[in-house]
Fold this sequence. Notes:
The complex is a heterodimer of chains A (115) and B (107). Chain A has 115 residues and is an all-beta fold. Chain A has strands at 5-7, 10-13, 19-24, 31-38, 42-50, 53-57, 64-68, 74-78, 87-94, 105-106, 110-114. In chain A, strand 5 (42-50) and strand 6 (53-57) form a beta hairpin. Chain A is globular, with a radius of gyration of 13 Å. By secondary structure, chain B is mainly beta. Chain B is 0% helix and 62% strand. In chain B, the strands form 2 sheets. In chain B, strands 2, 4, 5, 9, 10 and 11 form a 6-stranded mixed β-sheet that branches. A 5-stranded antiparallel β-sheet of chain B has the order 1-3-8-7-6, with no helix packed on it. Chain A binds chain B through residues 2, 33, 35, 42-45, 48, 55-56, 58, 88, 90, 92, 97, 99-106, 108-109, 111, and chain B through 30-31, 33, 35, 41-45, 48, 50, 86, 88, 90-97, 99-100.
Amino acid sequence: DSGVTQTPKHLITATGQRVTLRCSPRSGDLSVYWYQQSLDQGLQFLIQYYNGEERAKGNILERFSAQQFPDLHSELNLSSLELGDSALYFCASSPRTSANTGELFFGEGSRLTVL
Amino acid sequence: KNEVEQSPQNLTAQEGEFITINCSYSVGISALHWLQQHPGGGIVSLFMLSSGKKKHGRLIATINIQEKHSSLHITASHPRDSAVYICAVRDNNDMRFGAGTRLTVKP
């Protein structure tokens, strides 16, 4: 058990809809990262938050947004969903913001299916 | 060309064999991670390296910064080692992933 909790584990929805994925980091970890894993593109970094502020952006679509709340949990919002958004979405937390020293702890992922 | 290349893509071994998975990258990095993903989908971080060598039990990871290359070795492989192994490199706060190596260890 990594200590990172993601909900829901599975989600099925229709095109055009909006969903919210939630991540609770390990106790004390200030950094939260979101990743997408699809069959055709593999793992991709989406976005990082550190102590409530956006710290880095990767391949995140404009239809997607995220935030980190004062209690350090994070939510990833996916809107106007398309079939191609079907993927596993992982959250990871780290005790630091520095890319040099931050060990990563992954949640079990949220599997999104868009029909 | 992918910035992070792993080889081989697939690997089948007999229990007890020594296994090596390679990762080459073309960008400057601050750290390299080896990740393990089991069929259920969960990801576990095995190692984070910025130089040299690390060992956890039967797993050894090495990195050569000058050659931009890392290897993951598994000694005395076991069927429970069957998983996808992913190399990931961090450049400041961005992260790029290899396509993964699917390892199957047969009893």
